Amino acid sequence: MPARRNYVYVFDIDSGDRAALDDAPRVRACLADIVASAGLTPVADVEHRFSPQGLSAAILLAESHIAVHTWPEAGAAYVTLTTCRPPAAPDFADAAAGLLREAFGARHVDVRTVS
Amino acid sequence: MPARRNYVYVFDIDSGDRAALDDAPRVRACLADIVASAGLTPVADVEHRFSPQGLSAAILLAESHIAVHTWPEAGAAYVTLTTCRPPAAPDFADAAAGLLREAFGARHVDVRTVS
Fold first, then answer.
1. Which of A24, A105, B13, B78 is the least crowded, having the fewest Cβ atoms under 10 Å away?
2. Which pTM does this prediction carry?
3. What ipTM, to 2 d.p.?
């Protein structure tokens, strides 16, 4: 076992709203909401828009990072959150999935974890 | 199942060289080597140095992203690679682990995958 274990959450968004998934301010706000809900601390960020649609963004955190990749044409996106400590709230994954469903009008958000 | 599946690799570096893990150019070069070895395409990046040591960096890719977080004081780091398509080389994970061992003088690199 490595000396320092980390946690990875993968959220797969399906059947989302195409306009919402291509709306950079909305995507950024959703990530910020998830970071805040997990009690994590942003330190730097980067974003890239693809042509003709889609975007990727990553926020470095004091505790690791969160990133999103969207495919508006497919109504799809996924978000990964890695952290060197477990989120404070025991229901963090469910809460984050709810924020993603709401932000992107998605019927379903699948959650996978690695720990 | 979501419409678009993605792949996540987590590499845990243990017992690495403290100076190497705090050497930003070396860390960046190692990530670039892994990206090239996987046949992926960088599009943007971000980096943050922690005080008194340690760094985080993320590279957005045309195919998703790679990120690293280092704890030189513990000889530890981890790298996550997410991609919307599997790396071309079937031995990608082993090759990437080898690059990480070499770059950081680590005795062991543990690999976890989510797919």
1. A24
2. 0.93
3. 0.92
